[in-house]
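Two folds, back to back.
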Amino acid sequence: MRSLFGAVALAAIAVAAVLIGTASAAKPPPPPPPNANGCPNGGTYVVDSDVGASFTGTTTRTYTFHSWVDKNPVAGVPGLVGYCVYTNQTPGTVTAAATGDNGQLWKASKASQSFSYTRPGGEKSNIGLDGTDTEIGTATFNTSPSSQTILLHVSDSAKCRALYGGDATTCFVLPGPKPGPICNAGTGNTAAAYNAIPTDVEHCGPPSLGFEANQVNEFGDEVTLNTSGGTKLVSMTVDFQSYGCSASGHWFSGDCVTTNFGADTFTIPASGPDPAGITASIYDPSDLVNPIATSTNTDPIPYRPSADNVNCTGADAGKWFDPVSGACNNSVSVPLTFTFPGTQTLPSTVVWTVKFNTSHEGYNPIGELNACNAAPGGCGYDSLNVGAKSYPNAPYAGADVNDDVAFISWGSNGNVLGPDTGWTPFRPLGEIVLGP
């Protein structure tokens, strides 16, 4: 059973009866003989950054294996052989949920203050290192363990040699943390006909164009689509950057306060003939007045987190800290998806855009009569931007017709949508998905 889980912090401890240590500079010796459930009774081990482990729950815990990299395993190699858990108490029941690459259900067993999940047969029943997460199994305790260490047995001869030396084909390793965002690959949607948005864009902190600050009505790009998967418009996704603060302060003054990040959100109200929310449009490049298709997204948009004056100091003072990327940012990425009926055929080259109104900008400005205009943090939509950055190897699907050209409607230029030069290296961040 494979499923995706969020990163869960592991409690890495030293159990008195189990001497499992952390990485050391010297090459560790071979592990001691295994106990009854196939796990070592001691030893010193190093971290393997290719694999991870996590759990959820208290008295009933669900354990997960993370393959952080895709090594294209063949018949389970490279792969996971066993998953050892050391706790300060013995579980009542241990149940395996994982299956190996050959479809065989894994085995679960327990010993005093440790238990394990192991492959049922040879290498073909390993869990291959294919870049996905696998639910390994569950364990039920009378009371929640106060200490725990997870040790992984991997079949990866090249990595074992690099970590420990010698010629061992398998080795025991400590799980590593989830790697930071790569921000130079676009593998999130392999069905995309055009995609300039990198994987983990939520943690990349790209530059962005502000509609309120720059008198913008509409913004996008001209792109050539890969139509090998079809020509019917299914969806469009655009990366937005939210700079607003829900309670008080501003990103530019370093005093941003958002009471409940994730729960504190805003929406964009209707204004004049424009509906509430953000509207995405697809145009034929020969007609930038009448769109081929439009879709409106009214999802609530989160405010950015509060200023973190512990992790973000000096030049980063006032920014919030992203623990995944380890970076301090002024805004938070909000990728929004616009859906279409899937019946509209597109030409091979299109102009995609998004448009929305702010207090003073947009085709139909909202004005200053809303309650948020008098609030300490102002209106969230006045601090909403569209991400724009030319990432390495992007676009990952389709092509940008001209890297230096974006399509924009400036309020100061007669509200006319058209090409605008000087955008290298700031490519508007969008994705278009087509179907048959």
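---
second:
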Amino acid sequence: MKKLIHLYRLINILSVDVAVGAVVGAMFFAKIFAVQLLPQGLTCLGLTVWIIYTADHLLDARNVTQTASSERHRFHQRYFRLLTIALIAAMGMDAGLLFFIRKMVFVEGLRLAAAIFVYLTIQKSLKFLKEVAGAILYTGGVLLIPWSMKAHTATNLQMMLVAQFVLTALINLLLFSWFDKKQDEQDRHSSFATVMGEQVTKSMLVSLFVMQSLLSVYLLFVANEKATLVLILMNVLLLLIFAQRSFFEINDRYRLLGDAVFLLPLIYLAI
């Protein structure tokens, strides 16, 4: 068991689970929008998400002059050169796959890539908006293929599910900001928690959980939308992390579970 936990911790530090979670999310919305996905498109999505997260962590690690406070950034400092080579290789593979994806996905992908480039360029200036931008861009990546290939205009219920997913991603990132506040301050990284303070971050999380609850009640009991059950489960686990901070801050347990919740849409895909 310890070996499995250690292996998953390494997978998490490398952001591999985040990339897989994005692919699972794309498959989740593809089923909702009744869209057929191709393996090259999903592979391209997974690689792109991994590239973005790894580039972000490498930039953060490089900007820290001393030994980083977080295990993730220390890892990226220690293996900076090796991870940079892996990043360049992944970018090459990703670029090669672009020749095999559908034209509509390629066009929409260029727009998203431009937005991501701007984000990586100005992220240090975003301050407390970094998590909001991250949640929107992550959702944009997840929705890229299903949204660009859907045959009909999205229904109100489908848009509510998208909104629920955006809120879930935002809660996830704000939770991480809340837990990482001291480490980010030591390493001089800006986040919602370092700029707005711990109490404001906590209040924001409570507000977002309330919004999720109201949206979930409507989708489940009024609209009878079964897909929302997966998103409800994801938010219940995030709420557990929020409520049991002292337990989940040990050995970064919050990050392991917080990233793993985006694998839960596999349940909906299996039905």
